[in-house]
């Protein structure tokens, strides 16, 4: 059972992390960056700024499908004492992740309460594929739930449901993202879709619906790049202030003076 945040007039502070890409080995590197170190630095910085009410991690929790990264993540999430929710990414071994993370990794389709808000947690991963897909029965179940539940809602998944302007990764989003966006746009209580996978900050509005990506806590990808390219921006996260009336204030926060940089010559990952 996860702790439940207090209901109050103050907005809830949700910290959205993504693409931690943790390795079994403590010094494991993704494109030259030690991802355990960058994750711990981002988490520590985020929690030190002001009290948080909950954490969300939108996938690619581990890079190598091994237990060590998930164990580290579980230990760090337990230390926060906060409600924490993880969804599956294309790099994850989800049965192993769920076995180790327990209640931090609820089943796909779970609805997590967060004060007046709800988080709808979806698994968009496809075994053996980099791109994503949402099973039609999951979309149908979300649609049925939204018909009778009017609380302001955040839909959370790993893959991007909309093009972010980088051709190489726009081929690797959730391949039925239009259906998800149409469903959410039809239900105005869905205030935002939150995702990762693109390793860059992204924000776009369609009507009243916000589409928001968190940067990776690990390596950043260059935005608006036709082909694969690494960015020099430091790791970070997205902060969301969730007001009880359904308003969202959000910003991206990055580490300053982070000493380690990715290999800019990398041609892929
Ligand atoms: Fe990733």
Automatic annotation (TrEMBL):
Gene3D superfamilies linked to this entry: 3.60.21.10
SUPFAM superfamilies listed in its UniProt record: Metallo-dependent phosphatases (SSF56300)
Annotated keywords: Hydrolase, Iron, Metal-binding
Pfam families xref list: Metallophos
GO MF annotations in UniProt: hydrolase activity; metal ion binding
Residue stretches making up the Calcineurin-like phosphoesterase domain: 12-200
Nucleotide-binding is among the record's keywords: no
InterPro entries to which the protein is assigned, alphabetical: Calcineurin-like_PHP, CNP_phosphodiesterase-III, Metallo-depent_PP-like
Keyword field contains Iron: yes
Protein family (similarity comment): Belongs to the cyclic nucleotide phosphodiesterase class-III family.
Protein name per UniProt: Phosphoesterase
Organism of this sequence: Marichromatium purpuratum 984
